[in-house]
Design goal:
- Two copies of one chain form a homodimer.
- With about 120 residues, the first copy, chain A, is α+β, with helices and mostly antiparallel strands.
- Chain A has a single domain (about 5-110), classed as Arc Repressor Mutant, subunit A.
- Helix content of chain A is about 60%, strand content about 15%.
- A three-stranded antiparallel beta sheet of chain A has the order 1-3-2.
- In chain A, strand 2 (about 60-70) and strand 3 form a beta hairpin.
- Chain A is globular and about 55 Å long.
- The two termini of chain A are about 25 Å apart.
- The relative contact order of chain A is 0.14.
- Chains A and B meet through helix 1 and helix 4 of A and helix 1 and helix 4 of B.
- Chain A binds a DNA duplex (30 and 30 nucleotides) through helix 2, helix 3 and strand 3.
Chain lengths: ~120, ~120
DNA sequence: TCCGATGCATCTATTATCAATATATCAGAC
DNA sequence: GTCTGATATATTGATAATAGATGCATCGGA
């Protein structure tokens, strides 16, 4: 995650699940995919990514399996589970709800004050 | 903050600044205002609110002043500072940027997969 | 051989809440 | 006067989620 703000905390699992729902991927590729989709805005550190993957596996949201690439390299590919799919939906819904609520607070000031947001 | 998700962490200062930009308020009223605006979705615990206010005061984003109400009751009223105003703008901008990036990741799955989000 | 890319892992420090708790005082009901 | 609820503030320890720092391994190309 971009070292910008505490605002961004907590979204790691949802992001990971979001890319895994399309197809199974190994850790490094997950990070790359998210990075690419967000135009390099969202980035993981290893210290965040791998513990998160392990935790999600422990929770049963994803399942990991070691594979060997053509080049003979090993990597662990993760796939989303039905439980993970449900969790993703829950988090998406929560996110949308939260986002709306937040906008209701910060957005209302915008519509009333006007000055600051004109410069935003 | 509603005890829902780690997704919601980190937005406390921005929310507080958002209400203070309209007019000075004491702690309890700030919490009430945010709660009301978000239709009871966003709520603070005292353990979060007051340390956050103190920290923001220490950072110079807000300034507090003890007042006495008509009923003779004391309370500490906080007002946003110019520095706080700038910080609010920064955080709003960061939030909007982050929000867009997040949607780019989770939203893209939605538009492609279709099934899950149809039920969202 | 060396370097960069790919790929994974782990640990500590930091940060931001959550939970739990406590104190104080006003206002209204009994 | 007493009790209860609302108002108002404060603090502390536990917990969770990163950020930073580091390390290991291996393939591919120069």
């Amino acid at each position: 995650m971009t070292a910008m703000d505490p605002l961004f905390k907590g979204s790691t699992p949802m992001l990971i699940l979001s890319v895994l729902v399309e197809k199974p991927m190994h850790g490094y590729a997950i990070a790359k995919e998210i990075e690419q989709r967000s135009a390099d805005f969202l980035r993981f550190r290893e210290g965040t990514l791998y513990p998160a993957l392990h935790e999600m596996e422990r929770k049963g949201w994803i399942a990991g399996r070691w594979e060997v690439t053509d080049g003979g390299r090993e990597r662990k590919v993760y796939a989303i589970t039905p439980l993970g799919l449900r969790e993703l939906e829950r988090q998406q819904h929560a996110w949308r709800r939260f986002s709306r609520a937040l906008e209701a607070v910060i957005g209302r000031k915008s519509s009333e004050g006007g000055l600051e947001t004109c410069t935003t």
